[in-house]
Amino acid sequence: MTAAQFELIDETEAEAILRWRFDELVRAGYDIGSALMLASHVEIDLHDASALLRRGCPSETALQILL
């Protein structure tokens, strides 16, 4: 989802999407702060973010790559 697409959805749906993204990132192994930061960047693909950790990339490095 692009940032422009995200801006077009209603507040309730946006909140649900951000919560879901946050939960998925925590499940992937990101700490709460990192997951919150990444979840708010809707242009970041969750599959890419999760794949970095699965491949052994430290979360700090993954954040630098993704942001």
Would you summarize the structure shown here?
This protein has helices spanning 3-7, 11-28, 32-40, 46-54, 59-66. By secondary structure, the chain is mainly alpha-helical.
Please count the helical segments.
5
* Helix content percent band: over 70%
Strand tally is 0
Overall pLDDT score: 93
In terms of per-residue confidence, which ranges show pLDDT below 50 for 5 or more consecutive residues?
none
Which tags fit this structure?
67 residues; mainly alpha; 5 helices; 73% helix
Descriptive overview:
With 67 residues, the protein is an all-alpha fold. It has one domain (3-66). Helices cover 73% and strands 0% of the residues. It has helices at 3-7, 11-28, 32-40, 46-54, 59-66. The radius of gyration is 12 Å and the shape is elongated. The mean pLDDT is 93.
Please write out the topology.
Blueprint (H helix, E strand, L loop, with lengths): L2 H5 L3 H18 L3 H9 L5 H9 L4 H8 L1
Helix pairs in contact: 2-3, 2-4, 4-5
